Amino acid sequence: MNDRKTYLESYLKEKKLLVDRALEECLPGEDNFPEIIFQSVRYSMFAGGKRLRPILCLASAEAVGGDSSRLLPVACALEMIHTYSLIHDDLPVMDDDDYRRGRLTNHRVFGEDMAVLAGDALLTEAFHLLARKETASHFPPEKILCAISEIARAAGIFGMVGGQVADIQAEGKAADPKVLEFIHRHKTGEMIRVSVITGALLGMADDNSIKRLEKFGGNIGLAFQITDDILDIEGDMDTLGKATGQDAAFNKMTYPFLMGVEQARQKAKYHLEEALAELSGFDERAEPLRLIAKFVVERTV
Amino acid sequence: MNDRKTYLESYLKEKKLLVDRALEECLPGEDNFPEIIFQSVRYSMFAGGKRLRPILCLASAEAVGGDSSRLLPVACALEMIHTYSLIHDDLPVMDDDDYRRGRLTNHRVFGEDMAVLAGDALLTEAFHLLARKETASHFPPEKILCAISEIARAAGIFGMVGGQVADIQAEGKAADPKVLEFIHRHKTGEMIRVSVITGALLGMADDNSIKRLEKFGGNIGLAFQITDDILDIEGDMDTLGKATGQDAAFNKMTYPFLMGVEQARQKAKYHLEEALAELSGFDERAEPLRLIAKFVVERTV
Prior knowledge:
The structure is a homodimer. Chain A is mainly α. The first copy, chain A, has one domain (2-298): Farnesyl Diphosphate Synthase. Chain A contains 16 helices and two strands. The first copy, chain A, has helices at 2-26, 35-45, 52-63, 72-90, 106-110, 112-131, 133-136, 141-155, 160-170, 177-202, 207-234, 237-240, 246-249, 255-259, 261-278, 287-298; strands at residues 99-100, 103-104. A two-stranded antiparallel sheet of chain A has the order 1-2. In chain A, a hairpin with a 2-residue loop joins β1 and β2 (103-104). Chain A starts with a helix and ends with a helix. The interface between A and B is large, with 53 and 53 residues.
């Protein structure tokens, strides 16, 4: 158990370092004109995120024997999309959050106009990063096109954006298990699922492995969001770096509110088991993916 | 002269119809869940835009002998990016506009949260539309990847977003010709330039034609924005469908303010001539592009 923990910690640390370094290279410097937008983008990109989505992408590529170092720009693009969504979610017209990862949110530092534009910039640059020659030339063009299409679908109106809208619409309404599942699958789940798929696809996995990893990703996405909602109730701001109890304050529809914390915890565990079952046919190269899956449910931050 | 006008009018009308029909097919219906975001997206997409960018893309493909009907989804993606930028620009934290094309702006109908998300959705769906199989399979994969990369660059931090930021930053400051040129080239110019390039690239133009059309597009982009700023002073709301005099009210840095309306008009004409000169080697298939260029400078709406 302790060995596993140490192994996972060093794996996460190593990958986070690689992702951070790749992001440093991918993102333009603050000396570009107009400086404020480059500062704003970098402020949120280097705010100490866990880099869960890019690491899942890399671990998924490794699980199918792919060369994960080639996928670093793709992993960065996933993190850029994730960060854009956080910046826009935190806006006063959305969740109105002042803190994120223990620091002031983007709009509190750079103003709301710059926060809207920093989000827009990150979303756009993510697609530029994916399609530009330096990234795309490492993969068969059909595969990178497929990855772009999958990522855009997962981030868009039928994915993350749709989930965010459903979440806002559900505020203050009576809990509805169907709507709740929709919100969870889309708001967070889709980007986690697509991070895993993209890794498999560009790691040159066969169709069967892609299908199993897709199911793995879908289950982990759900487990992640349920755990997040539990932490919003049980965690504290010092550990999480953001305000807790926000879901209750906003009358957000979450699993812990629908079924109680203990039942929600069981549901998260169920999805973890489902996810791990999909990896049964994979060899030891999928071990990091298995450990990350467990970490997603057992984490306290 | 009248023949030309009639020809241009029927060309624009025909292409607008094709673009509108293609958009109708590309955009998901309002019966999808959650309905409000699909309504919000469609509200702004079908608000009676001129479809200038998609038509430039199609006309550019035709100028090099390409089959423009294949480019319709690409043209739609360009219009979706343009529309997202309008929705976000109109937000209270940005230009705070209540009317656009004679109708209430998106956020005035659907709320600010939905307007932010509708913009996010359109930007993301544009890239989905470009990369998905139904679109991409019509072109050599390297070409469509190159188009995606060019479009993302033109829309992003080094293009439209950067220009928008510079525009906001310049408000109320003493006019600076260098900054003004930067704003114009980026805020509007880049998306117009890339619409022309994309048409040429996917119309299978040779490198020389692409270069000339790129210069054409750059000049037309500048001429377009200068004309827009003149119309903001001289036009009236009934004709334009949006509030005029906004630039003065916001102390925006524009050419008419820097050099006077007459000098600005001369500058727009200069860029029109430069643009037309680039088309000198093209045959009659570039005629629509020439007429659109003139229309851009001579328009009153």
